[in-house]
Amino acid sequence: MKIGKYSLGIGDRFGHQGEAQLRAIIKAAAAGADIVPVWNKSNREHSYIHSKPVDTRIEADAAVKALSFEGNYFVDADHINLSNVQGFISASDFFTLDVASKIGSASSDEEIAAFIASSEKYTGALNIPGIQDPFEISESLLIEICRKFLAAIAEAGRIYSFIKEQKGEDNFVTEVSMDEVEIPQTPVEMFFILKMIAEQNIPVQTIAPKFTGRFNKGVNYVGDIAQFSKEFEEDVLVIDYAVKEFDLPDNLKLSVHSGSDKFSIYPEISGILKKHDKGIHVKTAGTTWLEEVIGLALAGGEALELAKYIYINALTRQEELCAPYADVIDIKKDELPSVEEVKQWGSYKFANTLRHIPDHPDYNPNFRQLIHVGYKIAAECGAKYTGLLEKHHEIIGKCVEENLFDRHLKRLFELR
Ligand SMILES: [Zn+2]
User: What pTM value is reported for the model?
Assistant: First the structure.
């Protein structure tokens, strides 16, 4: 089972926007970009919302049927590990093996020695086609890379085998992720990580490293764009070389997590992919939930009141809500609007403050990030929240579709 060249992770926390998301994909196809939709949802999201992996499958199948979509699509068990993968086996056909927590775990001296022995041909100056300067590979560098990643990739091997035994070898797509860490992986680390993945016989089709810079949830990229661009291009070239050297799947591509809203690096990504004729997977999960809140605000009345309630509640529960996302948000507390202020707001003021239009005078990325992590509050509202989603599905669906197509896909794939 192979995923296409371009794919988009369209997580949907509450499972109501499948059709709106798919409309954006269909629009992109009409504009010339064939993009495979992948409905992704992590165990963490399921546990907050009290949904089950099968609910994502039902949503995806229903959207595909309703819009008579004829392309491939997948359901991604996002960020799973051995402790929770079982619940995703039957509903998913895309698995993101998250081994970030195993980075730095110990491997035996024998395992390290074996890896170093098999890497001998790469020591000295390692030339990767397309990359100007060779990488200097010493034995001490290899030991360091083994100490960081060998045990983590062995764990990925165990998760992969577990899934393969139950689903059968060719019935799912495999991603390996290590993005939820503080320290980025360098292109040279990526090369040896891919060697380890090949030795574990994992037919990896997408790989999610931690890139340089901050990928905060729902807001723009923060970091050195030139440095990102250099490393992203080197990663692309390293993958190309590793695929041939280690006999990995020839469609192996990068996966960008927290990839929504990174408008300032989309032109870089797009240019590099074009230059080297390569594919990409971009995960955009939480941006859709924010469009639900924008849609509710625009609907006015009790829907606007609920949007305000979500923010006001999130403001008082900041610590609790932000803790699980500490590495991927950056909220300046003193730039958050006060309860009294927000209570005065009308629909447009609320929507404009939340909507990601970077140069809009009302846009506030702190407000946006806080609501991003506040979906737990909407989940607590239960049927009141989902009832309003249904009541206002038209206006919300328009927001979701516009956000994915106009602000994301158009920029990522240079569409008109
Ligand atoms: Zn991720």
Answer: 0.96
